């Protein structure tokens, strides 16, 4: 990116702006630009003060609909100061109320800004991503956002749900439009047992956890469940109660020893994937005594990805009344970037 980009007064689209400590790369370059569409600002650890952040004038950019803010990463950290109050910097980066998608990565403050707790500022959001905000202990009241469809929370080791976030016992519905919820490596983020209000939830992704939220059992609309890097040896039997489930994916679970037999009762399951779960080798190699309970279910698809198993599974496919689909190489599910 060239310096002094603020001189391009007619610039309307700038997908990426990296803050640096050198002249011509400060947030003031954004002040007078009437930007629209998507804007990703990286290198916010190089912002010198709250006043400098306010100079970006983000609140005036009414044509923006996607905004992502990043600290760290590949940004130039020269000149960054440890005594800059990152919470005040973020407070000064208040966006316009026109946003449809908002994300943050690497924020080191312990609290989110007031504008993230203000339903009128973020009222039109459809998607929120909060990644590696390690010091935050409480999520903003995202459940009040009427149009929020996708929520992705990752790498927030201290964060917890606010008790009032789910509005138990009141008429106001929480997360009324939420369709996809992703939670990765948030050990303290315990979901409530009452998740019946999530009447639009279709996809639930969880990674780096030791247990599955019991409340998921009562989500009658769930169609896809992806479990990744699960650290326990067994999965709960109530998986068999997710009668609307169509896709079940179990990836990278190094401690998992078995799959609950209750999955044989899932009437709509059409895709079942096991990937990189070494203790399930026997189960997937037709050696496990429990496999017969799944083997005889119609239209079940089991995909397993280790090298050298393709011919064996192809032969099994011809012998089985089920449809077994095995291929390589596997497509890994990585941490989604902000871009």
UniProtKB/TrEMBL annotation:
Q: Which residues form the R13L1/DRL21-like LRR repeat region domain?
A: 27-156, 216-277
Superkingdom, according to UniProt? Eukaryota
* Pfam families given in the database record: LRR_R13L1-DRL21
Q: Which PANTHER family match?
A: LEUCINE-RICH REPEAT-CONTAINING PROTEIN 57, RX N-TERMINAL DOMAIN-CONTAINING PROTEIN
Q: Please give the name of this protein.
A: R13L1/DRL21-like LRR repeat region domain-containing protein
Q: Which organism is it from?
A: Phaseolus vulgaris (Kidney bean)
């Amino acid at each position: 990116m060239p310096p002094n980009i603020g001189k391009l007064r007619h610039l309307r689209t700038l997908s990426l702006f990296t803050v640096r400590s050198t002249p011509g790369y400060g947030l003031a370059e954004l002040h007078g630009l009437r930007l629209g569409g998507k804007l990703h600002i990286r290198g916010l650890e190089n912002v010198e003060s709250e006043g400098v952040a306010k100079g970006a004038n983000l609140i005036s950019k009414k044509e923006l609909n996607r905004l992502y803010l990043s600290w760290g990463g590949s940004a130039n950290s020269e000149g960054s100061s440890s005594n800059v109050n990152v919470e005040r910097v973020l407070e000064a980066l208040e966006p316009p109320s026109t946003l449809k998608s908002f994300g943050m990565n690497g924020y080191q403050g312990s609290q989110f800004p007031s504008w993230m707790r203000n339903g009128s500022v973020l009222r039109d959001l459809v998607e929120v991503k909060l990644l590696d905000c390690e010091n935050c202990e409480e999520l903003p009241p995202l459940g009040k956002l009427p149009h929020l469809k996708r929520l992705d929370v990752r790498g927030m080791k201290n964060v917890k749900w606010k008790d009032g976030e789910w509005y138990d016992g009141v008429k106001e519905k929480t997360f009324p439009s939420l369709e996809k919820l992703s939670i990765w490596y948030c050990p303290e983020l315990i979901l409530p047992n009452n998740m019946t209000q999530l009447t639009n939830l279709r996809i639930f992704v969880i990674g780096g956890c030791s247990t599955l939220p019991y409340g998921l059992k009562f989500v009658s609309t769930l169609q896809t469940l992806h479990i990744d890097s699960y650290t326990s040896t067994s999965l709960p039997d109530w998986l068999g109660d997710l009668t609307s489930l169509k896709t079940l994916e179990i990836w990278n679970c190094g401690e998992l020893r078995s799959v609950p037999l209750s999955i044989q009762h899932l009437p709509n399951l059409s895709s079942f994937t096991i990937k990189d779960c070494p203790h399930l080798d026997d189960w997937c190699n037709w050696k496990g005594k429990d496999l017969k309970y799944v083997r005889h279910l119609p239209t079940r698809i089991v995909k397993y990805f280790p090298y050298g198993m393709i011919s064996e599974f192809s032969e099994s496919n011809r012998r089985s009344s089920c449809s077994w689909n095995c291929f390589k190489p596997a497509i890994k599910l990585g941490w989604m970037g902000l871009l």
